Amino acid sequence: MKKNANIIEDSKNIYMIGIGGTGMSGLARLLLSIDKKVSGSDKNQSPVLSDLSERGARINHIQRGRNIPRSTDVVIYSHAIMPDNPEYRMAAGYSIPMLTYPEAVGFVMRRKRGIAVAGTHGKTTTSSLVVSVLIAGGLCPSFLIGGEIRSLGNSGVGNSDFLVVEACEYKRSFLNYQPEIAIVTNIEKDHLDYYSDIREIKAAFRKFISGVKAGGKVIYCAEDSNAAGVAGKIARESKISYGIRQGDWTAGNIRLYRDYMEYDCLFRGKMAAEKVKSRAQGMHNVLNSLAAVSCAAHLGLPFSSVRDGLENFRGVHRRCEILGSVSGVTVIDDYGHHPTEISFTLRTVRGMFPESRLIVVFQPHQYSRTRILLKDFARAFSMADKIVVPDIYFVRDSINEKKLVNAQILAEKIRENGKEALYLPSFGEIVAYLAEIVKKGDVVLTIGAGPVNKVAIDLLSKLGA
After folding, report:
1. What is the mean pLDDT of residues 96-122?
2. Mean pLDDT over all residues of the chain?
3. Higher-confidence position of 316 and 42
């Protein structure tokens, strides 16, 4: 393959291993929209696969080598697929070109006006806000996002040249993208099962923003020292900054309410718009919305469209999502799995329900992350009244990592920080415990990147029964 060739552009028959995944299914829709013949496999039946079938994709529910025809031009696979997968082995045996999901998205982005949103926290919400604002401005982008935007889903095929992508730093995946606009929300220690330290993480982000196309823009949070440092050497005309008090775009007169927030939007100290509203709650979402404002302003959208996009934004599933209220007990679910994200979410929920007892069920995600950030996790629950910790969600880690830390150790560390914490191994035990202790006025928050939302769903069902 030539260095500057676009293998996606030049291919007609594309096979996708793990086609039903969040990102892979969205990419499949994009490929179908540009007249590619798409087939693929996934072990799990789902409405997503039915939708892809209706759009013309051929789906296999059993993964086996004979599913891969020799006529396949390229095979795309998710990071979850291992080399011992029978379809992977067959494609390698046929010497068919193979791409990871981020590599394939990078090729698709070459024919688009790419907007890539990166950062340790806030990628999904910021990407979703950018999509909402662009839709309000009539630009109708395609998008590939890690979470599900309410009423829109986690992906979409638009009728413009814009493509909004959530750009993950894990395994340096975002280096496959050369966007027109790169947004960096913040940079912190994370994915330390892959990166050695914060310096290596910052070096990866520096390389990411260096890949922005000529004439493009880097948009970054001026109040995050690492993001500001990474963007520091970029020419002023090639970057836009934002922050609550510091940056080109700032927010004043911020007011947080139960169902929405409101603030005045300023550009370099001058009023751009008064009383801008958004349903994305919390001070961290003021920053996320300012990133979207910065992007829209750079693209020349009128502020009336920006305002409409923020006000009409309906939120993202599993991002401080109120699932229901039964007998005066409110149940909320959130995807946060890093200490900073947990602190932001608890502060937001506490602001929404200042008089309520706040009971948090936190499922740690990865043994390595829990071990490395143990002290930070233990301090992250200062806004909670009671914390319940189930077993750690096991993903990507080695068996040796499981021997070094466990959920009971985390519960003990939280207690050492003066909070009431309890270790209960299983979701069933937690639901039974909560059903006994909750009372009218309580708020129960389930939080974590694993399936801890099942606790929230089952608790609502039990309380309703």
Report:
1. 95
2. 93
3. 42
Q: Is residue 107 part of a domain?
A: no
The answer to whether residues 145 and 128 touch, using CB atoms and an 8 Å cutoff, is yes
pLDDT given at position 149 = 87
Q: Say whether both 71 and 146 belong to one domain.
A: no
155: which strand partners? 144
Residue 223 pLDDT > 70: yes
Residue pair 459/331 in contact by the 8 Å Cβ criterion = yes
Structure tokens at 108: 């698709």
Helix axis angle for 303-311 and 283-298, nearest 10°, is 140
Enter the tokens of residue 407: 């959920």
The DSSP secondary-structure symbol of 334 reads E
**Degrees, nearest 5: CA angle 40-159-280:** 90
Cα separation of 431 and 366, whole Å? 22
Lookup result for tokens 């950062």? 119
**Residue 244 structure tokens:** 């609550």
Q: What CA–CA distance (Å, rounded) separates 454 from 465? A: 16
**8 A C-beta contact, residue 262 and residue 275:** yes
What is the domain extent for residue 452? 321-464
**In 10 A of CB 206, how many CB atoms?**
16
Does residue 445 contact residue 332 with C-beta atoms inside 8 Å?
yes
Taking the CA of residue 208 as centre, how many other CA atoms within 13 Å lie in the half-sphere pointing to its CB? Answer: 34
CB neighbours of 214 closer than 8 A, spacing ≥ 6? none
Does one domain contain both 34 and 145?
A: no
Pairing between β-strand 142-149 and β-strand 153-156 as defined by DSSP bridges: antiparallel
Count of domains observed in the chain: 3
pLDDT, tens only, 77-99: 988 899 999 999 999 999 999 99
Q: What residues contact 68, with CB distance under 8 A and at least 6 apart? A: 15, 75, 87, 90, 91, 94, 96
CA distance 98 to 429: 44
Give the pair of three-digit tokens for residue 78: 């998710």
Neighbours of 129 (CB within 10 A): 30
Q: 137 with 96, same domain?
A: no
Same domain, 92 and 116: no
Stated pTM of the model: 0.88
Task: Please calculate the CA angle 156-161-162 and round it to the nearest 5 degrees.
Answer: 60
The answer to whether the CB of 184 falls within 8 A of the CB of 211 is: no
pLDDT at 430 > cutoff 70: yes
Kindly report the backbone phi and psi dihedral angles of residue 217, in degrees, each rounded to the nearest multiple of 5, phi listed first: -135, 145
